[in-house]
Task: inverse folding
């Protein structure tokens, strides 16, 4: 639990943007949603080949996972994310997407 609180503080929980209560309340709600999404991504997607991403701090995770120099290509009515093979964490990112896509959808 302490790690989740520390990671949430690194993601914006420790920095409120305003003196207004309503703005800070919204900020807190958005920060908690982001922390929960990060935790679920770590739990469900960062397994197997992508286990190296599960132990990263939020800054490193944002750099490795969200700042990928990738291209979104459209062909044959499909969207494809083209990640350069030279990116050091390309295999881990592909593994995360594969694990999340393999989660069964509710009927």
Result:
């Amino acid at each position: 639990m302490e790690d989740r609180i520390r990671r949430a503080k690194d993601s914006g929980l420790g920095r409120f943007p305003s003196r207004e209560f309503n703005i800070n309340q919204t900020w807190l709600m958005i920060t908690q949603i982001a922390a929960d999404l990060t935790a679920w991504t770590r739990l469900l997607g960062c397994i197997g080949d992508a286990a190296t991403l599960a132990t990263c701090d939020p800054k490193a995770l944002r750099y490795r996972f969200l700042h990928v120099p990738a291209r979104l290509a459209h062909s044959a009515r499909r969207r494809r994310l083209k990640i350069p093979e030279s990116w050091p964490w390309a295999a881990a990112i592909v593994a995360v997407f594969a694990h999340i896509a393999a989660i069964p959808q509710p009927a």
